[in-house]
C-alpha cells in the first residue's frame, strides 16, 4: 500500500500561493503520482495525476 508523502518545499519543489506546484530541473526520481485536494465550506475535491519524467 502506498502512503502519501507531503511535498517538501525547497529549491527544487515549491507550492505557489495559488496552489500551483512548481518542480525545477525535474529528474526521473520526480516521477510518480501527485494528489491535489481542494477544500472549502461546500466540500472538497481531489485529483490524482501521474507524472512521468523520462
TrEMBL record:
Transmembrane segments: none
Segments forming domain Ig-like: 1-40
Name of the molecule in the record: Ig-like domain-containing protein
Protein source organism: Cirrhinus mrigala
Source lineage: Eukaryota, Metazoa, Chordata, Craniata, Vertebrata
